[in-house]
Amino acid sequence: MAKVTIELVYNYQNRQLLGAQFWSRHDIAQAANTISVMIQNQNTIDDLAYVDMFFPAEF
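Given the sequence above, the corresponding structure tokens read:
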């Protein structure tokens, strides 16, 4: 199993998502797309806690 590392940038005062960086050996484009939509919708890191992301198992 490979690690997925995510670094989030957010406004400390209102907790709004401002950016993110992803590192992984696998394709995690869908997770990046999800965060991108959340940034566009001005979601907070608290909203992110309720998002379920699926990462396929390595075969």
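Helices lie at 29-40, 45-48. Try to locate this feature in the token string yourself.
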